[in-house]
Amino acid sequence: MKEKHCYIRFNEDLHVLYDLRYIRVSLFTFTDSGERCCHLSGQGNWELSYTGFQADEKFEELLTLEEVSWDDFERMGFTQYG
């Protein structure tokens, strides 16, 4: 499966966001293990991720939201990455 990328608006103040409060959302496969990963990132090496069989579902759910919050990330099971 090909990688997917988009930007989504974050509705809280955070110094690592891109212009206009956006974070990058990526969906990809780890080549060494075949696991799927939904990865969130901003400037300054800020990252959260969800790795596992539901990563595609997390990516698609994020696309349905107008804006996201920390509560959304916690509810969806995203954790610090790296």
Distance between the termini: 23 Å
Classification by helices and strands:
alpha+beta
**Estimated radius of gyration:** 12 Å
Biggest β-sheet: strands ordered side by side in the sheet? 5-1-2-3-4-6
Major sheet, described briefly?
Answer: 6 strands, mixed
Shape: globular
Give the SSE order as H and E letters: EEEEHEHE
Defining traits:
82 residues, six-stranded mixed β-sheet, alpha+beta
Can you walk me through this structure?
This protein is α+β, with helices and mostly antiparallel strands and 82 residues long. It has one domain. The protein is 21% helix and 37% strand. It contains 2 helices and 6 strands. It has a 6-stranded mixed β-sheet with strand order 5-1-2-3-4-6. The chain is globular and about 35 Å long. The model has no long low-confidence stretch (mean pLDDT 85).
Summary, kept brief:
The protein has 82 residues and is an alpha+beta fold.
Lay out the secondary structure.
Layout: E1 4-10, E2 22-29, E3 36-41, E4 47-51, H1 55-64, E5 67-68, H2 70-76, E6 79-80
Parallel strand pairs: 1-5
Antiparallel strand pairs: 1-2, 2-3, 3-4, 4-6
